[in-house]
Amino acid sequence: MAGLKLDGLRKSFGANEILKGVDLTLADGEMLVIVGASGCGKSTLLRLVAGLETPTGGRILIDGRDVTQADPSARDIAMVFQNYALYPHMSVYENMAYGLKIRGLRKAEIRAKVDAASSLLGLDALLDRKPRQLSGGQRQRVAMGRAIVRDPKLFLFDEPLSNLDAKLRVQMRGEIRRLQRRLKVTSLYVTHDQVEAMTLGDRLLVMHQGVPVQLATPTEIFERPADTYVAGFIGSPAMNLLPGLMRRNGTAIAVDDSEFALGPQRYALPDGHPVFLGIRPEHVALAADGMAWPVEVVELLGSEMLVHATRPGGATLTLRTPNAPTGGPAMGETIRVAFPAERIHVFDRDSGRRIEPA
Amino acid sequence: MRRSALHLIPHAVLILAILLFALPIWIAIAGSTQDSAAIARGEVSLVPNFDGLGVYRDVLLDGSAGAGPVWRALLVSAGMALAIAFGKIALSLPSAYAVTFFRFPFRMTAFWLIFLTLMLPVEVRLIPTFQVMSSLDLINSFTGLTIPLIASATATLLFRQTFLAIPDELVEAARMDGAGPLRFLRDIVIPVSGANIAALFVILFVYGWNQYLWPLLVATDPKLDTVVIGIVKMIGVDTATEWNKVMATAVLALIPPVAVVLLMQRWFLKGLTEGDK
């Protein structure tokens, strides 16, 4: 088993710089999820590690060995593709055995490895089928089996669940997690789905426009997002970001005509400094004497409801609240809300960076 | 009532088309069993005369005035058609593979040069090709008969289209599995394109079988007469043409291409339904 180290990895396609320098170290057996919107460079990063693209700059080390220029097959890695990329003319068994066959393993050895992987994945009964005779979930399992039999130093997952329906996705997500824990293979997992990212990763790397924005545990990223991009990207519905000004010597923020206290600590920012007040929809509290927000839309989600409100100035707020039997806020009404001080995030309005209390 | 009447129209059109298509073939079959003189007078009966079936034995073994036995002509035709079909596939597979999957200097130039030859079929370059074959001393040889027909771009173009449809991820998966270029061609590209290779084989076989102009020019030795040439030679200018023999030969010439189509049809239907997408 082995770790992965990326050293100032850059990639340009012509004048278009996709990756602007990524440094990253993965511990042995760690599962790191790279998450970001499409075009953020996450897939390119994965393909560089796989050896399917050549980096413009920087180095890739697997298990301490520099593989930057090595052929994909010489890197001792396995990849699970979004479209599974199973060989359509080969049976499940042949699909899993192909890589081993090329490596020149003996028949008995191949048989043993494929059998082990297929029983691990519950594919025993399907070994003679062709990929087209399998369901999406089964194909996904075969793709993982093909990766497992190789016993690689590193697993790469390129959005492996995006072609599955919602229910299957949840199930396969759990399976991948269990499998990865059990095999303890260092894994790099790329996704645009934040739920997948939160549930699968030991750590998360949030990418934005070719730059890693934050690398931390899922909890850390959720509770202390590094900037407004991460704050808006992780969490659903997204965090409310209300433009405001610093007040009272760094202990309060004014939004429109209301002031919100920031708790015991103070922020080292001058009064009048433009900031964003960040508050997650589930942390917005209804309060009789709070700030007034006219309700625009109410979405019922079953056990809870989302209330979208807009101030006359254009600022919008989303509030997530349990679905009360008496009926909650209705369209056209005005709700009054408060923001609990310990739940407020402060971001610099110009740079978007998170500001911690002094 | 209206509906069923409307339904009949397409059927009527189809039946008419089938008749138009099949009638000449039927006339040839029926005519081959009848008296040559009667055919020459234009009195072809649509009912085959079963006593006249011996004509097939006659043409196969002895041929007719002006042409050798048809069995040899059939053999030459089969040899030529197979050589052209296999030769073209063997030539175009690697060239299409190269221009599709590899980046090398002047890749597109190479592709366009291949493409350009499409505009120069054998008929257009007849004289220079004959000159080349003559210089190489290949006139009246099987090599001279087939080689110029093998070199063409059609198959390369079709294979390129087929290969372009192979998903990138499949190529990448094979690379990660450690498959080198030749392995990838043998284990993935050719099996995945099986249906297209079969379809192309049918087209090329029929193309080769029906060649007329080039064999007429390059092979003057009667031993190298194809069955198509044989038919023409049977239609004498001054001697009385034995029309029943001509028709029998035409029917015999029809059988191999039809057989290939029928045989391969099962094959590429299988290929089409077994595809992943």
Q: Which pair of chains has the greatest number of interface residues, and how are they split between the two chains?
A: A-B, 25 and 20 residues
Secondary structural class of chain A? alpha+beta
- The succession of helices and strands of chain A, N to C, reads EEEHEEEHHHEHEHEEHHEEEEEEEEE
Distance between the termini of chain A: 42 Å
Unreliable residue stretches of chain A = none
Total discrete domains of chain B: 1
Low-confidence stretches of chain B: none
Number of β-strand runs of chain A: 19
By CATH, the topology of the largest domain in chain A is: Rossmann fold
Q: Can you tell me the CATH architecture of the largest domain in chain A? A: 3-Layer(aba) Sandwich
- Label the overall shape of chain A: elongated
Give the class-level CATH name of the largest domain in chain A.
Alpha Beta
Give the integer mean of the pLDDT values of chain A: 88
Per CATH, the superfamily of the largest domain in chain A is P-loop containing nucleotide triphosphate hydrolases
Name of the top-level CATH class of chain B? Mainly Alpha
Instruction: Supply the CATH architecture of chain B.
Output: Orthogonal Bundle
Largest sheet of chain A: 6 strands, mixed
Named CATH topology of chain B: MetI-like fold
Coarse structural class of chain B = mainly alpha
Largest sheet of chain B: none
